[in-house]
Fold these 4 entries.
Entry 1:
Amino acid sequence: MKNTLVSFVFIFAILVANAQQRQEKIGFGIQAGWNMSRISGDTFDGKAGFIGGIHADLPVFGNFHVQPEVNFQQLGGKYKSDAFAIGDIRYRYAELNMNYLSVPVLMKYRFKPLDLDIFVGPQVAFKLRAKNKIGEGETYEARNVKDTDLVGVYGLEYCLRLPDSPVDFVLNARYMTGLTNFANGENPNMPNDSYRNNALAFILGIRF
């Protein structure tokens, strides 16, 4: 985890230095939104959650930009009927709730006349918390969730520029596809061999 963070910081510093040398505008912003997550396999239904954080928009060359972000993101799923068990007891209403610190690095291509970007890139997510919720509120630690997760991110972003204003509004729609299995696979409460985080997110932000 430490090596991954150092690598992201190093890449970020190089991109900032390159953009400054080119004397192009670097944008910084804050964002928040909603995502619907879906865990692969047949054990879970979808679950709504929050996503929000900060980002930087760094010109690289031509119409290409790089956008590193740091987001707090809620992922998880609702166990389907009779899919969740503790010992011989099966629970009809249960959820797996996971909170992550997500760090995507997005390569963007900008269609300048439209202020529309398409983007794709990797995202490393560091687990902050993972809990199972049973019934109306009983929770316990989900120890079978790994500390890190890797997903691929792709989507569209539209920038609404306001006349005579230093602030732009940003509308962002993205899909996240799990690339690795986030479950240790050692706990009978997760009967499938592999689980991957997938999510559709809609985000609204402001950029300076």
Entry 2:
Amino acid sequence: MASAACFFAIPATAQDLVTKDRVGSADAPKELTLRLAGDSPNSSDPDWAAGYKELFADFIQKHPDWRINLQAMSNDIGQEQARLLEQVKSGRGPDCASVDSFQLALFKKNNVLKPLTPYFTKEEIDDLFPFVREGITGDDGEIYAWWYSTDLRVLYRNSAIVPDAPTDWAELKEAALASVDEGMEGFLFNGGRYEGTVFDWLSNFWAQGGQLVDESGKPVFADGENREKILKALDYYKDLVESGAAPQRVSTIVGYDELNAAAAADTTALFVGGNWQLAQLKSTLDSEEFENWTFDQIPGPTADAKATGTGGWTIASFSDDKEKTEMCAAIAKDIFAGPGTALQTNLPTQKAAFDKYDVYKSESFQKFRDLLQYGHARPGVPIYPEISNQLQIAMGDILSGTKTTEQALDDANTAVQAAYGRL
């Protein structure tokens, strides 16, 4: 994600209180181990690192009896989250850590998360976007993590080539074909074997009311009405490629950088991407070119069928020590849920934050807030990673013409059901 402008000046106290592996006095009587991803004083982005150093320095001065021992995750998030889960299950994990919202269900299933409900008000919880509140809440009504930042997928559009926002699949296809006539590649999207491929595409399934799993967590995406809806969404992508509205090479695209590159090279006027790419486009394109780019709701099969995929990060506690759990909740609330998210210009999970922080008062961020009402998180069930894996394979087979849509879906479902039976 593109760097936010640095708006923190680091005082001497921040330099003294925040080191690479410690926040607070080395001889503080209480300590907490905190494992973080890139959102930390050790961020590779110098502006973010500087901002987090001040935030942590301010925080620890309000909690002088504590020392926070910092641990950093590598960029291999999947591997890191798997390691974290195994460590906390065996009692060797940190007291508090970042948990990818994508992986939160696995931590819930293994009963390693400590309730955070007592440390947040009802008003704070009610202010969360619905998909966020649902994601952190257990079957017992307790919240088991604090989801502090999110994102969403949108349709990026070069208005100089495509002046009007497509409102449904048919209009998007028409606009893409018209852009091809203008010398563009057409509509681009992640289509290779990659989690982003499935996540970005799922809006087309969710917009129809499709469900990947039932209330018990059993995969039902290939059953009954869901089967009709998922076939329709898969055939939609297939038709885009076969008609020339999308190039064959989408089946090899496995990252958002490729989409940015196409926009910078002026070879596409339409692509599905994440909200963070707006800042990347602004930093990549010259000002006149950037002025042509805007974003819209991802079109559904009809104009009133709307959905978008949402992700993000949470903070969770694994400690049996209630003081440590309370401290973990305070870190989530006082550092990450507000100023930390604003520092990185990530999307907040509480509606009030869009009015509280100046960075969110722009027209673009207010539009992102409006689109979050259509947000869908990946289902919080252990089988989801295998559903995604098999749908990635199916997408590749469909876009390459190796299998029919029905064959690819049936093969995916067979593999997923087998995996579900082993859980």
Entry 3:
Amino acid sequence: MNKQFAIDVDAGLSQQNKTLPSKYFYDQKGDELFMQIMELPEYYLTRAEHEIFTEQTQELIDALGVSPKQHFELIELGAGDGSKTKHLLKALLEQGYQFDYLPIDISGYVLELLASNLLAELPTLSLKAQQGDYFEILQNLKQSRAPKVMLFLGSNIGNMTDAEAANFIYDLGANLAAGDKMLLGADLIKSADIVLPAYDDAQGVTKAFNMNLLHRMNNELGANFVIEQFDHLAEYTEAEGIAKSFIVSQTAQQVHIAATNKTYDFAAGEKIHVEVSRKYSRQVLELILEKTDFTISRLLTDRQGYFADFVLHRN
């Protein structure tokens, strides 16, 4: 991982407009901080999707179109702590559905927590955790002929550009059969007074989450970032519908990274783009899906209309 980490960091910091890949937020400390973020009062996304899963559980099951008489595989990409999914799992078990639950995550730590939490509450659940890269695991799971329902929740799709999202969803579809379903969680476009605090909370947890990326480079790549000389910045405009997060250099400075054997110059006020968070409407998602094998068959929203879970049908 460190070799690829170094390659990706060098590629991003060598650009005129500096970037760092958001996937490197997630070491054990990053996982813990993100779980804290999901509990923040400003972070409406988790609560809104949680509401859908708790108050519209039967509607979700009906929309997925699975049969109690046919065994299926319920695959979740990046399952987190399973706090939302467990409501769906519990209802499926109570109604006698026959299925395996297969959470996929790159983090073994997250999967261990997930399995521990879910099996304590749902001891009869057939849980088969899968650690590793989504597409490598999905390629193996493709060999099974069982119908599949894929969950990609939390608006994780929003961390991609629209072109990246289209390619990603197309590649997911290549590992599914006609008639399979995907439940896609997506944050909906709304005003900046609601969105911005979710990425710049009063307690500074989001800032700590972003700064953890600098700590990782110091610890794993031999970088000499002075963390106190960098800050966190969030930007969002409703017209664009995209929230962006940056790490900002507070002063003119140089940073050396041993793993790349390079020194990088930062101007005072220079921004490093670390994350994008796309917000959606049905129209935006339909444009993204045009070149994939999926169509929207149903959508469910929370009461405030902040968030949607789109049921996608594999054609």
Entry 4:
Amino acid sequence: MIVVKKAEIQHIEGIIKVCSDGYRATYSDTHSHEYIERTIREFYQYERVHKEVTHTNDEWNGYFAALEGGKVVGAIGGGLIDQDKGEIFVLYLDPDRRGEGIGTQLLHAFTDVQKSKGAAEQWVSVSKGNMKGIPFYEARGFRFVKEQGSFNNHESENYMSLRYRRAL
């Protein structure tokens, strides 16, 4: 049985593994190896994830983990980007666990957190060409708003992100 809860220190290694493996599985066909590994080094290293698990506020609501028998099988995190606007910054699953409803459980639990903090709408950025994320979010009521450059592009890179939003 899957349990979704606010992540704790003992979940850090599992969050790192799920996010790193999920990121590689999601972007291996659309992004360079250099981009993927650079992003993983920046966002999914122990010190950063430890800080993001232990220090939360409205701008960063923390990580929430999907646990099965204490093992992390999925993770979500985000925060408020405005007084009434929540954003999902990260949502990844163990790549072998896709299609089991774990992502939906994470999204529902995290949406409840953001609504309790006053969010009336929710945003997410999805990389252009991410055919795992785009259908997932569209099926849950997110609608395309605009395209913009990806957050972690270097000068020679031109990866694009699609901004989606939904009313809560």
